[in-house]
Automatic annotation (TrEMBL):
One of its GO terms (molecular function) is oxidoreductase activity, acting on paired donors, with incorporation or reduction of molecular oxygen. Its cofactor is heme. Belongs to the cytochrome P450 family. Pfam families: p450. InterPro entries: Cyt_P450, Cyt_P450_CS, Cyt_P450_sf. Keywords: Heme, Iron, Metal-binding, Monooxygenase, Oxidoreductase. It comes from Bradyrhizobium archetypum. It comes from the Bacteria. This is Cytochrome P450. PANTHER family: CYTOCHROME P450 YJIB-RELATED, P450, PUTATIVE (EUROFUNG)-RELATED.
Length: 411
């Protein structure tokens, strides 16, 4: 992974023009997915901006640059795709998102609608049910003792509250996780993961498209609330299903991987579980620290709308810039002891949910679910032990576990 010269003269000229090191790093490889932290350090130490030969894009892995790009949506746009594909040059694999893949002023209007639907007041309305369901789930798992913390907890809990809160029908919910995984895989390059996900996607896409329609959403759920904003004239009737789709895309996988990461952290850092047990009010912060530490969303792209100077390097118009959110969240320039999981750390500023106008639309839901689950664990669980092989789930954008066998003992 040392600096090299790209073989393509055109790409070589871009790297030379920008004055950045060229790296033979593939952030969409099995090697990277298994252990990104070693490569993150290579990326950060190579410079504030690097050139990635494999995919012919600029990369940024330090906190300062990642945060700056996330907070400059006019220069680094999302409407040309937040994956490797450039929508100015190729057709999106599906109708593009009117929230994630949109720029102001169009984004401002649709974002305001989702901010109303998923407001802090709306979260208060579901908090009691989410809390009771989390406590019941922990009681059930403690009675079992040994289980898989991914399938039986990190997936099972969100699937027990999120679809109901959205107002989805019971039938077909098994499509939700594969659909979300597909969406995040599709942000990557045309590798095997992306190709296979899209090839398998027809039933998942059909299910989600149907669930986004008004007649299939229960009254009072978040989905119906989005359609109500169309009645109020805030969005059009055609836009409402696309906004519901955004919630179904963003509301589950990041939560699943976030809760899985938190349990994995508490199992590996028993002193931090003890600290959380001594003060259950740290549950929210323990979840935030797990998001920083493991970064369930690892990468996103932006596209430059003009020639720009970034950290003293010249980048032309129409260039893809790959942000390494996971690397930024462990940048020692920003975080003290970044490779330590610490439930008392001041986590404000982490980019695990993004930053700026495109922060994760489902973040309040994810934070609520993560907090109440960790609070239940803090009150009820005395010990978490890993009892079998831990397996990674590979995805072009997400970092999470396929399997985490554990035994939980009561407090």
């Amino acid at each position: 992974m040392s600096a090299t010269s790209p073989t393509d003269p055109a790409t070589s000229a871009k790297a030379v023009s920008a004055g950045v090191p060229s790296l033979d790093v593939d952030p969409f490889s099995a090697e990277f997915f298994e252990d990104p932290h070693r490569i993150h350090e290579v990326l950060r130490e190579a410079g504030p901006v690097v050139w990635l030969n494999k995919w012919v894009v600029f990369g940024i892995a330090r906190y300062t640059e990642v945060h700056a790009v996330l907070n400059d949506p006019i220069t680094f746009c999302s409407s040309r795709g937040v994956g490797l594909s450039d929508f100015a040059k190729e057709k999106p694999w599906r109708p593009q998102s009117i929230i994630l893949e949109a720029d102001p002023p169009a984004h401002t209007r649709t974002r305001a609608v989702l901010a109303q639907v998923l407001s802090p007041t709306a979260m208060k309305g579901v908090r009691e049910h989410f809390t009771a369901t989390a406590a019941a789930k922990v009681d059930e798992l403690l009675a079992r003792g040994s289980f898989d913390a991914v399938a039986d907890l990190a997936e099972a809990y969100p699937l027990s509250v999120f679809p109901d809160a959205m107002g989805l029908k019971q039938e077909g919910r098994e499509n939700l996780l594969p659909y979300a995984s597909l969406v995040f895989n599709a942000f990557g390059p045309p590798n095997q993961l992306r190709q296979e996900a899209i090839e398998r996607s027809a039933p998942h896409q059909a299910y989600v498209a149907a669930q986004c329609q008004r007649e299939n959403l229960a009254p009072g759920g978040f989905g119906a609330c989005v359609h109500a904003r169309a009645d109020a004239g805030d969005i059009t009737a055609e836009e409402a299903p696309l906004l519901v789709r955004s919630l179904l895309s963003a509301g589950l996988d990041t939560t699943v991987n976030g809760i899985g990461a938190a349990v994995y952290c508490l199992a590996r850092f028993p002193d931090q579980l003890a600290r959380l047990r001594s003060d259950p009010t740290l549950a929210r912060n323990a979840f935030e620290e797990a998001i920083r530490f493991e970064s369930p969303v690892q990468t996103f792209f932006r596209t430059t709308t003009r020639e720009v100077e970034l950290a003293g390097h010249h980048i032309g118009e129409g260039e893809k810039v790959l942000m390494f959110l996971g690397a930024a969240n462990r940048d020692p320039r920003r975080w003290e002891n970044p490779d330590r999981y610490d439930v008392t750390r001041r986590t404000s500023g982490h980019v695990g949910f993004g930053s700026g106008i495109h922060m994760c639309v489902g973040q309040l839901l994810a934070r609520l679910e993560g907090e109440v689950m960790l609070a239940a664990i803090a009150r009820k669980v005395g010990k978490i032990e890993i009892t079998g092989p831990v397996k990674r789930r590979y995805n072009n954008t997400l970092r999470g576990l396929e399997s985490l066998p554990i035994t939980m003992s009561p407090a």
